[in-house]
């Protein structure tokens, strides 16, 4: 169903150019975990997105208040809050994109793997419901550890007979956002012009920013590249420590999640050349899931792009990361199988 969207004067500066008169399809987006630290600002950012016509905010508590609050923002989408498992069906039915920031965040001293036991169970339950109520939706997995929650989701969908590798995404956009910000600072470039692909996974040394492919080119010395790589890999920990027990990245993650969901919606709507990095099923390396640049289209993943030329340093860190993945995969693999 298509609908014409008019830009209100009040919300004009928040919306992007180009939607004044043209038709955009109706799109329903659900945020699962919408009352959380990421969920609330993400709900607001999705409310500001003119590509969304219906916004479903689901959590196990507190969504009526969040939904009432966000619903007063004078933008296109209709907002509804859903609370508790009884209302999950209604939240999911008809969804084009489901964003999952449900789960517990890291505390100081915890790794993303420490989250595995709690978040794996949450993700499993939510994905079983997605398989039942909106099996064709694109799933944007934010819940950590993404390196494991994405394979878990895949297994749940396979068991339900609904798995489509083109529709399952681990959201690694925050790594890209951080790499761009840190690179722009070092290269003294306008951050709005900066592009940096980030490949690999979404935990510590599996996060591989490819600064040799960064644009605009800056020819930074190797010590700077190493420092930027480490800061990008430790970006999450930097925030966890600064928040001193009060959670992990929420605002920057909401921003990153909104960028990725927007890219998915643009792809669904047929906008050409929408490319973002994401942790997806992949044949780029020997690993079954790997983050790399992905072209998004009307069915989700249109093309999983290769890594491109790597510097010697990037080649070395990629090999180390792949080794770490293979080691982790043997233990996580058992855990995943036991969970499904
Ligand atoms: P939070 O604790 O503030 O919010 C989580 C929300 O999930 C809560 O509102 C909670 O009620 C809800 N929830 C718990 N079980 C649920 C269920 N079964 N169904 C629906 N909702 C449920 O945590 P925060 O800071 O929002 O983080 C959420 C997740 O995102 C964590 O797993 C965190 O590690 C991850 N994260 C991922 C990042 C990434 O780059 N992919 C970056 C930062 C955090």
Would you report the number of β strands? Answer: 13
State the end-to-end CA separation.
Answer: 36 Å
Count of separate DSSP helical elements: 10
Percent helix, as a range, is 40-55%
Q: Uncertain spans, ≥5 residues at pLDDT below 50?
A: 1-15, 17-21
Q: From the alpha-carbon coordinates, what is the Rg to the nearest angstrom?
A: 19 Å
* The CATH topology of the largest domain: L-2-Hydroxyisocaproate Dehydrogenase, Chain A, domain 2
| Helix and strand sequence | EEEHEHEHEHEHEHEEHHHEEEH
State the major sheet: 6 strands, parallel
Instruction: Tell me the strand percentage band.
Output: 15-25%
At the fourth level of CATH, the homologous superfamily of the largest domain is Lactate dehydrogenase/glycoside hydrolase, family 4, C-terminal
Basic shape:
globular
What small molecules accompany the polymer chains? 1,4-dihydronicotinamide adenine dinucleotide
Domain tally? 2
Subunit organisation of the chains: single chain
EC number: 1.1.1.37
Active site: 202 (proton acceptor)
Binding site for substrate: 106, 112, 144, 178
Main location: mitochondrion
In short:
The protein has 340 residues and is an alpha/beta fold.
């Amino acid at each position: 169903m298509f609908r014409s969207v008019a830009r209100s004067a009040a919300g004009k500066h928040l919306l992007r150019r180009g939607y004044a008169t043209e038709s955009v399809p109706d799109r329903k987006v659900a945020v699962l975990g919408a009352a959380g630290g990421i969920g609330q600002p993400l709900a607001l950012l999705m409310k500001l997105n003119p590509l969304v016509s219906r916004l479903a905010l689901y959590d196990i508590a507190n969504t009526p208040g969040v939904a009432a609050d966000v619903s007063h923002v004078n933008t296109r989408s209709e907002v509804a809050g859903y609370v508790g498992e009884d209302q999950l069906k209604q939240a999911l039915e008809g969804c084009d994109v489901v964003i999952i920031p449900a789960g517990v965040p890291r505390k100081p001293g915890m790794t993303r793997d420490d989250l595995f036991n709690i978040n794996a169970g949450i993700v499993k339950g939510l994905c079983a419901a997605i398989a039942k109520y909106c099996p064709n939706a694109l799933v944007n997995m934010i819940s950590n550890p993404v390196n494991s929650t994405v394979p878990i989701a895949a297994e749940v969908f396979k068991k339900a007979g609904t798995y489509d590798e083109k529709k399952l995404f681990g959201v690694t956009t925050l790594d890209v956002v951080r790499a761009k910000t840190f690179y722009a600072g070092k290269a003294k470039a306008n951050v709005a012009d900066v592009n940096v692909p980030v490949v690999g996974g979404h935990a510590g040394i599996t996060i591989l920013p490819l600064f040799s492919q960064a644009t605009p080119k800056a020819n930074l010395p190797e010590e700077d590249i190493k420092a930027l790589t480490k800061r990008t890999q430790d970006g999450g920990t930097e925030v966890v420590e600064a928040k001193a027990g009060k959670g992990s990245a929420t605002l920057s993650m909401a921003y990153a999640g909104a960028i990725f969901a927007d890219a998915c919606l643009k792809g669904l709507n047929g906008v050409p050349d929408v490319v973002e990095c994401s942790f997806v099923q992949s044949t780029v390396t020997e690993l079954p899931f790997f983050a790399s640049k992905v072209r998004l289209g009307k069915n989700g993943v249109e093309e999983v792009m290769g890594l491109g030329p790597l510097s010697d340093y990037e080649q070395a860190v990629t090999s180390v990361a792949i080794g770490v993945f293979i080691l982790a995969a043997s233990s996580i693999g058992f855990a995943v199988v036991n969970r499904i």
